[in-house]
Amino acid sequence: MDFSQLKGKGAIVTGAAGGIGLGIARTLARHGVDVVMADIDATALASARKEVAALGVRAFARRLDVSDRDAVSQAAAEFKALLGKVHLVFNNAGVEIGGRSLAEVSDSEWDWIFAVNVFGVINGMRHFVPLIRAHAEGGHVVNTASIGGFQVNREYRLGPYSATKAAVVALTEALAQDMEDTGIGVSVLCPAAVNTRITESDRNRPARFGGPPADAESKARREKLRAALASGMTPDEVGERMLRGMRNGDFYIFTHDEPKPWLEQRFGRILAAFDRVGG
Ligand SMILES: NC(=O)c1ccc[n+]([C@@H]2O[C@H](COP(=O)([O-])OP(=O)(O)OC[C@H]3O[C@@H](n4cnc5c(N)ncnc54)[C@H](O)[C@@H]3O)[C@@H](O)[C@H]2O)c1
Q: Which residues, 6 or more positions from 240, have their beta carbon under 8 angstroms from its beta carbon?
């Protein structure tokens, strides 16, 4: 799509009540894009919407649980009615579980993290992307994965999270193949540390996945990662770097330099294993 003509285009951003989603919404608004901001947290969403609208665009707030397939399907029709044409889709909502071995993760936590991080993105691809295809003017889809999609961080024990983000990378690669020759660009956003409330993800865990935890234990467990993220990149910087990557036609949008040596080491191990194929 023509990124010099962003003014007046319509975007859907999930997980837009705070953190990276709000950073994306503010970035889009600074470039004149109208935004539907969808999030499970209606209270945070209301003030986030005001902030985005104050940047001079049409901003709509809609409560949506991206893991609810029927709700996403219904929301798609409503979002199209609000925006007219949808050119940009950001499947960004995501949650984190960390600080534990795999054996310590409960059934409902497994269900929750895959429902939001993987099926939430699948639901957005199935129901929001057709809105871009419908007008044949082209557009762009960005799925938020994470650097965790390429590494399992030993220090923060993010195994379940990384498993979901690896799935998002693969799903986005598949979408890029499907969208070839449609005029719709596809990118996967892979940030490292960003200063958001992701370590408190369970504040918005739906009742069907166990609800928010009451225990102080979970707070203590996430303290280490929270401290690391507090000095992370701002969500608006992530938004601007993402937009630059989209303009450049990048599929992988990395926002941080720091993980590069780790990835070189990992891919080195993978390639070295090929040297031993057949003995
Ligand atoms: N913060 C980081 O360091 C970092 C790094 C890499 C990737 N990410 C990814 O960025 C995305 C945004 O996370 P963030 O860091 O801004 O966290 P955040 O918790 O600050 O924001 C996430 C938003 O998603 C919403 N949300 C949670 N469950 C939802 C659901 N079921 N349906 C709709 N909305 C829901 C929350 O209410 C919240 O507003 C996630 O996909 C996350 O995995 C974050």
A: 27
